[in-house]
Structures are given as C-alpha cells and as structure tokens.
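Hi Y.,

Following your request, here is the sequence exactly as I used it, all 287 residues.
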Amino acid sequence: MRNRLPLNGLRAFEASARHLNFTRAGLELHVSQAAVSQHVRSLENILNVTLFRRLPRGLLLTEEGAHLLPVVNDAFNRMDSALQKFRGGKFLEVLTVAVVGTFAIGWLLPRLKDFYEKYPWIDLRILTHNNTINLATEGIDASIRFGTGKWTLTDNIELFSAPHTVLCSPVVAESLLSPNDLRNKLLLRTYRQDEWYHWLEVAGVEPWVITGPIFDSSRLMVDATSISDGIALAPACMFRRELEIGLLKMPFDIEVNMGSYWLTFLKSKQKSTALTAFSTWLQDCSL
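Below is the corresponding structure, written out as tokens. Let me know if you'd prefer a different format.
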C-alpha cells in the first residue's frame, strides 16, 4: 500500500483537513473543487476508509481522518525541511558546533564571513558553553574548548595556545606600576582558580590568598572589568578589539601559558563532510 499512495491525494487531504472545505483547498492548490474531491475520494478508496463526513456547508474529519492527519503533516514537514536544504545546486549540510563563549566572540564570529564565502553549503549552528560539554548526549557535532586537550572520548585538534595576562580598565591600569600592586586589588577569577597563582609565580611575586568572585565565563569576567574595579586574567588574543580601541589595558607584559583552544569531536562518530571542511578552515585560519 505504501508504494501506491498518491502524493496528490495526500496533499489534497491535508489541505482539505486544514480548511475543512474542498473549494478553499482547491484555491490553495490551484485546482478545482472537483479535482480536490476526486483526489480525496481516490485516497479513501485505496485506504478503504472514509476520511471526511461531507456536510452541506463543509467537511468534518472522521476518526480515521483525524488519525491520518498528523502523520501526513509530519511527512510533508520533513519533505519541506529536506528540500529547503538545497542551495546553489548543493545539499545544505547542517553542522552544529558548541563553542566556548570567549572564543566565539573573540575569534570565530569576526571570521564567519570568510567561512560562509568558502563553504556556502554548510549551515553552521553555533551554541556557546562554559567549557563543559558532552558531545555524546547533547546531539552536537563538535566543540571548541579550552584546556590541555586531554579528553579521552574525543579526537582533539589543537588550534592555538592562548597565553593569559592581566587585563583591566584604563583607570585601574594607571594604578598598577608593578605586579605587587595587585595585592590590594579585586582579582576576578574563573573556575580554574589556580590561574592567578601561576601568573604570580611567573611574575616573581610572592602569592597571597585570592578571594575575588568566580565567573563561569572569561568573556563575562573581562566585561565586568569595565563596570567595576576588578582585574581579570585572560587570553589577550581574544580581546584584541577591546585593547585596540582602548576599552581594556594590559598593564604588564607578562603572560603565562594556561592551555590552548581545541576542536574536539567524538571518536565513535563518523566525521561528516561539513565537519572535515570546518576543521580544515579552522586550522588554516589558526596558522
């Protein structure tokens, strides 16, 4: 029966079920009322059921018609969705990537125009996260994370390192003549709470107990420096625009390597054409 169901009959049934009227369904489908009625009648004959009760002023779905309608709607929605993925003679492939927010704003978004010019057939979906992601359970094709790359369930491609340095507002920067001046300041932290101690060690400063507020996003933490006297430790390469226009200052030429940005994807999942292209583009841009 599946092979013999007429597409015209299903379309006529779906339109008639929405309008509960053969005439209005015919106007939508650009055919006569009689043609719609005939298509529906043919479908009923094939299924050996009655889909509508014909009333003097319209139609009423039967129980069988009510059961069939959501199935037909779902089928047409799936076909419409698939057909919309064709663009420029190619099938538009969806690629969903979860990106740590600092990287998304500081590196990826300014380069997206170049990506779309080179790969117009990829429908890139970007989700942001705070460096904690589970590709196996969240239906995501790949992620961009910060760290050491020691994630066992994924293939991990290093993009580039991102040394951390002190970032703050221009006003606060004027009060910082040496790293020791940080001792009485509000030091903002991420969940990697040992970062400041690593930086102080490289700067040759005796550490102290740091109790500043903890943020789950480096981007949010650095943004907070502009509306407070807080001082952040973050990768300067992700805040080049803010540094260039003077919203942020880097008071010390001291950096410490905390890790790198990585493209990660499941070892257990076959790498799609879109993911391969995205990976190549990322690595080319990171050189």
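The mean pLDDT is 92.

Thanks again,
Q.
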